[in-house]
Amino acid sequence: MASPVPISDPSSIVVLLMEKISQEAVACFEKEGFTVRQAVKYSEDELVEAIKDVHIIGVRSKTKLVPRVLAAAEKLTAIGCFCIGTDQTNLEMAAKKGIPVFNAPYANTRSVSELVIAEIIMLARQAGDRSMEIHRGEWNKQSAGCYEVRGKVLGIVGYGHVGSQLSVLAESLGLKVIFYDIEPRLQLGNADQVDSLDALLEQADYVSLHVPADPSTRNMIDAARVAQMKKGSYLINAARGSCVDIVPVAEALKSGHLAGAAFDVYPKEPAGHTLDWEVCLQNCPNTILTPHIGGSTEEAQASIGREVAGKLIGYMDRGSTSGAVNVPEINITQPLATGMSRLVSFHDNVPGVLRDINNVISIANIASQHLQTNESVGYLVVDLETNQLDVVREKLNEVEHNIRMRLLYRGKGYKGFEPINGSP
């Protein structure tokens, strides 16, 4: 049985990429035939206008997809966070609108780890201060307070992708690695997991944070925790700005309790390039401050571009939600067979809704059916064959607790997306 003629083509899929996302992502989308728009920065009001006809938006850490923005996104079908974190996006609201959110949890792991290793060595040698002095014309050669890192203890807080990679690199320099994580972790090399954050702070010469931003990590390093750290130790934060109360850190640096610190993230960060930004850590001794560049390497951004674009294309083309962070994951690898239609549906996870959906699609020949749910949302992918596709579509849109439904289908030598209620 021949499938219906698609009523839209790939070029009708509009992709908006913010914040100088890698051209690797642009190339991936353009290869699919999607229409790509690019912008560096929008105010919230500008983004509300720009997003109205967008089907896919790609953001990094500065573009905030808050409820007001998502409410204006009438056609938005998928979100790509071209970074590790997703805290710039209201994940719950996106899920309630049937919009999967994808990120790249692994792609910049190496880049962040290398930056931390560089900072450990630079702090140990007070190289940042010596560099600033010589830029001012001061020659201040000294060895007091400068050390090799070999034999010192690195305490890693959060032994995920970045933390474990850092562990491997650090051991190659002769550092002894201990780590704390809320979950039991398989240690790499000779690293040892400790039972508590208190135990880590009391032992570590260097403390490096690699945790997500959530209520449990907010100000996890506060005045009391800083006081627990060994006198003469160093603090490094390349995780999230909300994890550290920086005021007591600045005080500890000035008093000499901490011998140095390196920060790549801050509680409040400017939206873009500025010449007048201020933070209390400025002018503290032996303190390296960088503008959230942990993942900002050509290699990391290219890898992130390919990874997130691939996930977004997989969702648009096949209905695959593999790698989504806010909706149930279904890994759909097989392409849609000729003559078949594919229905993808988000619905409230309540009793009876699947029965109602099955009552509608029972008029068709079902080739395959996949369902996954979480506590609030269900996601269904069905391949079917029918000459009553319009009836199926109409009745599915009438199902109570339906959130969003799309139909993907293949015509002769052509794959397209059917807009449903103004969205693809």
What is the strand and helix layout of this fold?
Blueprint lengths: L13 E5 L4 H9 L3 E5 L4 H7 L5 E4 L7 H6 L5 E4 L9 H6 L4 E2 L6 H16 L2 H9 L17 E5 L3 H12 L3 E5 L11 E2 L3 H7 L2 E4 L13 H6 L4 E5 L8 H10 L2 E6 L23 E3 L8 H21 L22 E8 L4 H9 L3 E9 L3 E9 L3 H9 L4 E10 L2 E5 L6
Parallel strand pairs: 1-2, 1-3, 3-4, 4-5, 6-7, 6-9, 7-8, 9-10, 10-11, 11-12
Antiparallel strand pairs: 13-15, 13-16, 14-15, 16-17
Helix pairs in contact: 1-11, 5-7
Fold and architecture overview:
- The protein has 13 helices and 17 strands.
- Helix 1 (23-31) packs parallel to helix 11 (298-318) and helix 5 (109-124) packs across helix 7.
- The strands form three sheets. It has a seven-stranded parallel beta sheet with strand order 8-7-6-9-10-11-12, with helices on both faces. The chain has a five-stranded parallel beta sheet with strand order 2-1-3-4-5.
- The protein has helices at residues 23-31, 44-50, 67-72, 91-96, 109-124, 127-135, 161-172, 197-203, 223-228, 246-255, 298-318, 353-361, 389-397, and strands spanning 14-18, 35-39, 56-59, 78-81, 101-102, 153-157, 176-180, 192-193, 206-209, 233-237, 258-263, 287-289, 341-348, 365-373, 377-385, 402-411, 414-418.
- It is 30% helix and 21% strand.
- Mean pLDDT is 91; it is low at 1-7 and 410-424.
- With 424 residues, it is an alpha/beta fold.
- The longest helix is centred in the C-terminal third of the chain and has 21 residues, at 298-318.
